[in-house]
Design brief:
single chain; 487 residues; alpha+beta; 16% strand; transmembrane helix; membrane
Amino acid sequence: MRAAFGRVMHERDRVSDTPTADAAPTEAVRRRRRTPLLVVGGIVTAALVAGALTIGGAFDGDGDSTVPTARERPADGAPPPATSGTPEPPATVTRITHADVKALTDARTRALRDGDATAFVTGIDPADAELLAAQRRLLANLRLFPFARAEFLPPTGLDVVRAEDAGAYSYDIVIVFSHQLEGIDSEPVAEAYTWTLSRASIDAPVRITKIVGSNPTSHPTRPVRYPAAWDGDELAVVEREHILLAVAATDRARAAAWADRAELAAKRNAEAWHGPAITPRRFAVFVPTKRETVRGVLGALTGSCELVTPARPGGGSMPPVGARVTFDGTDTAFASSTNPDTGIGLIRRELAEAMVAQFARSSLIGGGGRSRWVSEGFAYYLAGDNSYRDAARAELRAGRFGGKLPVDTDLLPKAKGDQAAGAAFHISMLTIRYLAEKYGAAKADEFVVAMYADPASLDAAIKAASGLDREAFEAGWADYVRAEIGG
């Protein structure tokens, strides 16, 4: 069910603008740091982000005020143990408890549901105008998205952290935004933030003095990487049947045309797919144009598709449950075409990878995850993209085509050089096209699904698709490749 707090467009060309946030509360707080003396219950690390999270009762999407907020439960689903009736002795040093953190995250979850900008910034130093403005903008942006579920969660391993005395104390902690985009994610996924929490004295309230992204370097592709679309500037969101497209509010005039092109690309991909049923009903697309935002989310790429895994215990090693597609809105490959029927090759490629994400056994590509050459070959095949034909022809004429199926390292420019890597992209695409032309599109798609499920199953996948062993298949395929690129 669509969440009541998500702002939804029903008119085809309507753009949702970020609503105005309410005023903030006022309180002062001293900020003086102390060294922690004791952490009870385990050190909070980025490993929490990589999947060691206990997702409790996320409120569902009907906006009912009786729906519970985040409740933490043991991994086995048993109810939490009853608390002792013995009162806790008075504190003699400044400390921050799990209950303190949970009160802040629960308040933020309720505020997101209710659209309450004042409650959303609960705990933030009222003197910090910059942080207040950023968090109000975050709430306004989040309210543009149709979440099936959304909640902010404290780490489950934290019990109490203590200072050395009764003075001011600060502590950094990882907070998870567990969320599920309606029709896009099959279950909640996670984005992580690091909050700096401060307490001026034993009896002072806990304050949030800093909020930054928290990307675990050990598994950077598993959660939703910060910054997500909603973490930056004011947004506008446009919806189509198969597309949820977010842009900076300054680009709202172009958003409808971009959404139309992405919708056309999604429909063309769906028409070309003859494999098993596809789970996502639509795709999340972000198109930044601000140079620093583009660099932050894309680096040097013109487009990307990142697969994300569940926000539940062990989720980081589980199959993907969603995808996030991003395009550089300033690049000619995306932005130059004025004809919605042309220039959609880049969009089709990235949406193709999002479309089949559900079949992957891992969000990673290479290194035991998806086979790079199969993933890229399929994307270029589905898009009908011949961008690297000239590079392939040059390599063939130079005698550097050995008649063997690609391997992942062939597609890496740093390993092979730009021309050889480009040729490998084209030859990977021709592999999927050869399967489709000779054995049928359904067999080609089944080959891709088999390789996504088990990248080591190449021989079995070839046998299932063609009825041939690899050597016999390769012989016919090599002749096809030479004929296709040699003219």
